[in-house]
Amino acid sequence: MLIRILLLSALTLSAQPTARELLERIKTQVGVPWREPTVDTFKAGDPDTPITGIATTMMATHDVLVRAAAAGQNLIITHEPTFYSHLDGTEVFEKEKDAVWAAKDKFIRDHQLVVFRFHDYWHRRRPDGILEGMTNALGWQKAQNPETPALYTLPAISLEKLAGQMRKKMKITVLRVVGDKNLLVTKVALLPGAGGAQSHRRMLQRDDVEALVIGEVPEWETIEYVADAAAQGKRKALILMGHIPSEQAGMENCAVWLRTFIKDVKIAFVPTAEPFWMPR
Predict the structure, then answer these.
(1) pLDDT in tens, 48-94
(2) What count of Cα atoms within 13 Å lies in the side-chain half-sphere of residue 81?
(3) Is the pLDDT of residue 13 over 60?
(4) CA–CA separation, 22 vs 45, rounded Å?
């Protein structure tokens, strides 16, 4: 009986698609030619591992990995890096025998997880998978500019009320705002994540952008730029959602999209916890 159970388990496992095979399906469905170089590669684990469940997430934090493994999800599709840098290089951690990296790496290996980063091509897809998910989560679909999807025309609202609505709707603990809280806003741009000061500045230079919503940026770049603009009396403001909240709904959208063509593996969205908290 035991041998029969083991044989049935082995046959069931062998029938499951591997992570590598699932990636090939993604490549055919994303609608953009897959070219190198890209950060969209396997970051940990054996790509030939049979997959019993898929977890999409904003960031493959240790907490996310633990929850995914407990739910039987051994392929983690993450939007952002796993090992603390854009290219996920681990050489320096190995050299320094870093304890935090070592514990995370060990957990991945012990639980036979496979981590794949889905960043470049989820953004390159049309519509952009992250922007689509965030637009839907914010309820801004009807306000979106069809020709320039990052632009929105909202009913007039004060900057303070707009930021408050966004914080409540997206359940953000720490949301920061730069600019006059009483500024009446109708023209908003959304650039999730960390698009960089240059793209932020170009958007803010537009006459049809009063408030720019981003994830994060160094404080001496876009933040200082908007503070100076506000001090000069210009109608400019900045809302910083935090990197994870600014793209989180985009990876929930990824799970929905994957389910349209992956039918033989269960897919779940595993939210990444916002790392910040406010003292009382």
Answers:
(1) 999 999 999 999 999 999 999 999 999 999 999 999 999 999 999 99
(2) 12
(3) no
(4) 14
Three-state secondary structure readout of the chain: CHHHHHHHHHHHHHHCCEHHHHHHHHHHHCCCCCCCCCCCCEEECCCCCECCEEEEEEECCHHHHHHHHHCCCCEEEEEECCCCCCCCCCHHHHHHCCHHHHHHHHHHHHCCCEEEECCHHHHHCCCCHHHHHHHHHHCCHHHECCCCCCEEEEEEEEHHHHHHHHHHHCCCCCCEEECCCCCEEEEEEEECCCCCHHHHHHHHCCCCCCEEEECCCCHHHHHHHHHHHHHCCCCCEEEECCHHHHHHHHHHHHHHHHCCCCCCCEEEECCCCCCCCCCC
Whole-angstrom Cα distance, residue 15 to residue 52? 10
pTM: 0.93
Q: Are 194 and 217 in contact (CB under 8 A)?
A: yes
* Beta pairing class for 184-191 and 176-178: unpaired
Positive or negative, the CA dihedral 76, 79, 85, 87 is positive
